[in-house]
Design goal:
Blueprint lengths: L7 H55 L4 H26 L4 H27 L10 H7 L1
Helix pairs in contact: 1-2, 1-3
Amino acid sequence: MAERIRHLRVTVAASVVALLLATAIGRLTGGDVAALGVATGAALVTASYVLTTVAVAWADTIAPKLVLPVGLGMYVFKFSLFGVLFLAVTDAEWAGRVPMAVGICVGVAAWIASQTWWTVRASRAPLDTPGLSSEASELSS
């Protein structure tokens, strides 16, 4: 399974850096509530992506046919949970809800950018790189 989640070190690190920077900017521009909102949004996105990545990687180690149902199940679960959370935040009229939305955008952008960077970098690795399948090495011969 470790092979399937190699990118997590890069994506989580980038997400934490983005979270810290966005939280600092939120604190400077909107105070403690904005900082908490931004941090919450970015942390939710990071946790969501990590949870899905690990679940899908686990499913792939058990049986590749489980990847689609596990992935879809994770999305239904996460977005249902997010829906309940967002309704609660909206009903409470929490002042940090707009900064939380900004934090979500920051988290998504950091994750997508870092995973894209990692994927492009990994796809340029020589075919005899440890960790690539033997099929890929055979194709190059």
